Amino acid sequence: MNEENKPGRIGIKDIALLAGVSKGTVDRVIHNRGEVSIKSREAVQKAIKDLDYSPNLFARSLASRKHYRFVCVIPKYQPGDYWETADLSFDEAVRSFTDYNVSIEKRYFDQLDASSFAAAAESVFSQLPDGVILAPFFRTETLAFVAKLKTQNIPFSFFDSMIEDADFLTYYGQNSFQSGYIAAKLLLEGLPENAEILVVRTQRKKNVLSNQTANRNRGFIEYIKKRGLERKLKLVEVWLADDDEKANFSLLQNVFSMNRSIKAAITFNSKAYRLAMYLEKMHRTDVRLLGYDLLEKNVSYLKQGVISFLIAQRPDKQVYCSLRDMCRKLIFKQEVTRVNYVPVDLLIKDNIDYYIDFKE
Amino acid sequence: MNEENKPGRIGIKDIALLAGVSKGTVDRVIHNRGEVSIKSREAVQKAIKDLDYSPNLFARSLASRKHYRFVCVIPKYQPGDYWETADLSFDEAVRSFTDYNVSIEKRYFDQLDASSFAAAAESVFSQLPDGVILAPFFRTETLAFVAKLKTQNIPFSFFDSMIEDADFLTYYGQNSFQSGYIAAKLLLEGLPENAEILVVRTQRKKNVLSNQTANRNRGFIEYIKKRGLERKLKLVEVWLADDDEKANFSLLQNVFSMNRSIKAAITFNSKAYRLAMYLEKMHRTDVRLLGYDLLEKNVSYLKQGVISFLIAQRPDKQVYCSLRDMCRKLIFKQEVTRVNYVPVDLLIKDNIDYYIDFKE
DNA sequence: TTATTTTCCGTGTACGTACACGGAAAAATT
DNA sequence: AATTTTTCCGTGTACGTACACGGAAAATAA
Lengths: 360, 360
Hints:
- Two copies of one chain form a homodimer.
- Chain A is of the alpha/beta class and 360 residues long.
- Chain A folds into three domains: 12-55, Orthogonal Bundle (434 Repressor (Amino-terminal Domain)); 68-174 and 315-342, Rossmann fold; 176-312, Response regulator (Rossmann fold), CATH 3.40.50.2300.
- Chain A has 14 helices and twelve strands.
- In chain A, the strands form two sheets. Chain A has a six-stranded parallel beta sheet with strand order 2-1-3-4-5-11, sandwiched between helices. In chain A, strands 7-6-8-9-10-12 form a six-stranded mixed beta sheet, with helices on both faces.
- In chain A, helix 1 (12-19) crosses helix 3 (38-50) and helix 2 (23-30) packs across helix 3.
- The longest helix of chain A has 16 residues, at 211-226.
- Chain A is elongated and about 85 Å long.
- In chain A, 42% of the residues are buried.
- At the A-B interface, helix 4, helix 8, helix 13 and helix 14 of A face helix 4, helix 8, helix 13 and helix 14 of B.
């Protein structure tokens, strides 16, 4: 252990000395809150440059009396759902920033109910936060929400999906069009001609299709067109229920008996396990299945070999980075990148364990 | 901006108050450096538990006079090589920790020369560091080195590869056997019978085969055996030179004319671009090529479609996590996980950009 | 000129922790 | 009982920064 004096970190008192002023003046220049003569300001700025000064962020937040409150607006979920990861990641991420005097609050909404989103959004204003992070599910309601945020000068960030023409601070999410394109490539490469492809969708009372899901679908179709596979493959669709396992089973029985050449299947939402359950029960090992997101059940079927590919989108990183960038921007006045696409991670039976176990 | 007093973070003075002692005593208990009566100690420990106190790491390292010096022992490299990433990542990583009074120094050795490694290792002792991070290239020399470190009570961590029976603090690296297995799966799936597989190796003056490369090779063979492909495929080997492009070209000309059914090729080191260069020049689009690591040239050929797959191993994370864990252990006395495998990341033309561009 | 305002800037304290110093109380020794 | 030693613990200062306060100097007004 090297106990000697730490190698001279240069602080404001050093630049004060060099500039021939007091540290109070240096501080005024740094935070440019005026009351400094031009001469002094320039001397300080020169000293800052000459000594290559950078503030000690620890000391800064120690001394700071400011407290930052961020609000996160995210969907409600069932245990094991995709959104659980995001939710938990917020808690984990905020721990990295508590020493910067940061805290978060959360508002939940129903993914299928725009008015529930609007209500959650409205509740944000009861006590004005310093920033908002949200998953923008409903375009109209989101636009109204962020417009109101703007009048209050409250910055906001999107994650998961994005509304391009809003004035967000950052976006973190996957390029879902591209991930659909990649899904098609993985799923369809090397399939025999005239194979049937099963596209599994979810029954909805209301006709809501999330941005992400719709875009994956578009990317998927794009690949088919680009490769001229429209007539070489046949797409078969089936709509499964969220909760009625029995009904789904007979639906699938029907589909598979009507279409004898199904060689591959895909779900654009995260519920690949619903089909996997069927395939496993029927011992259908001849269907290549691709799904999204590392739900526990998906992972389990991947390991069993029922699901061939899972595409992941690092929900934890999306959340962490969103929060981190909000801190960078608001607390440390640093610049941040507006649009950030997370990688399209390809998981197979053989690399899933390392992916999951790796704790950065 | 919420300027009100920060929500009462509890510090040592709070537990001092509750325990009815001074903060000096609290500090003595926390760092258990004695000179505290049993009664006081217990009162303090109870207060710590009751108030759920956790130290402010910022304040701690601000007040600390200790300075930590870590030494990194890594291979020399040419610009663009795999090891450049690791080297640069050390610089980047240490920036995250400078405010914790951490600095690093580096020692380079020749990958092909064990005595050069030994010399680099020996030079570490000129000024005793607080910790060492190294890529253990030569088993014997490494064991000697870490034995000496142990006599000096200097902790050390491995990255890239690992020597299991050494008393290292952490290891970060890829399971190269498994990554070879996966490579085989990606490369060989769906190939026609009697296809020839080209295995590209590197000519070496001395017979050194890195751990990683050898293990990938073993994993590759394991897949072939497990699938019973020994007789259905034929492996063809070629040894390319590191620097003689012209000689390599005629070597490859020869190999491809002798073996007319080469449908796939692999390199177990990071130099896939050397074969890609040839394939591109000869317009051979019928060879599926898999390589390792995101060297600029590899990435470029991947994007062009000459390389079909690249397997990446997050060298930047390996380095960052090694350094971070050393800080966690030595500075913050936290526990760390000993063996950490990084994910086997699968990159194709279509997802490489997002992978590279994503800055966490 | 004197009084008043404005501009400018130095001093001091606080943030939560580490640690040196020294003093009081208790214990041991004479 | 007086002295010495040991045990225990409170006080004070420092880390680098933020910011309040108030004072000196300069500019303006009387």
